[in-house]
Amino acid sequence: MNKIGIVMLFLLGLLATINIIRGISRKGEAPPLREPKQTQSAADSAGEALLIGESRIVGLADYAQMHGVHFFSSVGMTVYNVEEAQISIPDVGKVTLEELLNGKKYDKIYLMLGINELGYEFQQTVDQYQSLVNLIQKMQPEAKLFLMANLHVTQTWSNADKTINNPAIDRFNEAISGLTDEKTVFYLDTNSLFDDETGSLTEQESADGVHLMAEGYAKLGRWLEEQTAWVLGGT
Asked: Model pTM?
């Protein structure tokens, strides 16, 4: 074999060796990066639950970090002004309750109202509350409705206030608990979470005798999720 033939054989062998090395290195390479799958965000799922109520529901909105929830709430909200109120809802805008219920579909709706109405005529307030329940059921017939007990006040507050006190709160809570059917409308006794041995809001849970502290609202938010799962698991 002449010198040219020897050189050609050498080059062919070198090329084959290089290809083998490349093949081995490719096997050890990481696979190309793929775009992450799009997952549903809290904003995407918002609207599956709605909480309606006064300042304690405002506290839940501020401190409970509940996801997939809309809050239709304001300080001083009552069964007498809830239908006229206009509340700003993320991704919806400023709407009345009827506009919100007409434009969104909710799986679960929670209602806490009554403490600000204790100075009104009792049966009139119960009837107004019942009318609100009827409206919600009419506009959201597939939603489960949870009537939340009005939270107690501390014993110190209760003893000093002739209108907003625990006997009056208990009387109203007993009335609304009778509106349930345990199929689509349920009653949640929120006071079981915060009461002391006297049946009053524990003093350490409140800075002003009426409202919870931030950690109390976080606790209430977790409790609502647990109770909802338990209730719906048994239906």
From this structure: 0.79
